[in-house]
Design goal:
alpha+beta, elongated, 12 strands
Length: about 210
């Protein structure tokens, strides 16, 4: 069973979450935009595939949902065009686990079949490519911490957390749509010496003239 989230108590540091969010309308070849995002999320990693861009970062927060919301709001603060559509569920192959821990692959393989280590290694959740087994990163992290195996103190999201955080992104997008936004107009009309008037829309209905 995945570990239950517990909000950080006063004086405790917040846990670090490994967050991966799929975006549309985020072109990694737009260097100006990428520079802006890097200025507010310097640790973020971007991977583009099939018209979508996965943004991954480590975020300190009281919960997985809060971590995802923080990342999305941070990117939104400098880029209102790109749109987060879902949270990605992290999977790991034996090679990924070995690299994370600085171990050889054979050691991890023996863990996975119960011939070395403390036993009860989590079951693989799928096979990809040429029958390469993959595990839920959250299950691996829980097994490592429960068995006191040294590992980075960064929590991958469980499937339940991914589902909850994706719903939180949907609520965020709706809230963004309801916020006033500046209209694009050919000319800005001066009202006074250093003042200008700018049309403002209030959500999708006003923008459509409803």
């Amino acid at each position: 069973m995945p570990q239950e989230e517990r909000p950080a108590q006063q004086g405790e540091s917040m846990p670090n979450y490994e967050v991966s969010v799929a975006y549309v309308q985020l072109d990694i070849e737009d260097l100006d935009r990428m520079e802006l995002i890097a200025s507010v999320a310097p640790g973020a990693v971007f991977v583009a595939s099939e018209g979508r861009t996965k943004v991954s970062d480590v975020v300190s927060a009281n919960s997985a949902v809060e971590a995802v919301e923080r990342l999305a709001e941070t990117i939104r603060s400098v880029d209102s065009t790109s749109e987060p559509i879902r949270v990605e569920f992290s999977l790991m192959a034996i090679s990924d686990i070995a690299e994370l821990l600085g171990l050889n692959r054979e050691t991890v393989r023996l863990w996975s079949i119960g011939k070395r280590g403390p036993g009860n290694f989590p079951a693989a959740v799928d096979s990809v490519g040429d029958r390469v087994r993959v595990w839920a990163a959250s299950d691996v992290y829980q097994w490592l911490t429960e068995n006191s195996v040294p590992c980075p103190d960064i929590r991958p999201l469980s499937m339940v957390e991914v589902t909850d955080a994706t719903k939180a992104l949907q609520r965020l997008r709706k809230r963004w749509l309801d916020q006033p936004a500046l209209c694009a107009v050919p000319e800005w009309t001066k009202a006074r010496h250093e003042e200008i008037t700018v049309p403002v829309t209030h959500g999708a209905q006003d923008a459509a003239g409803l």
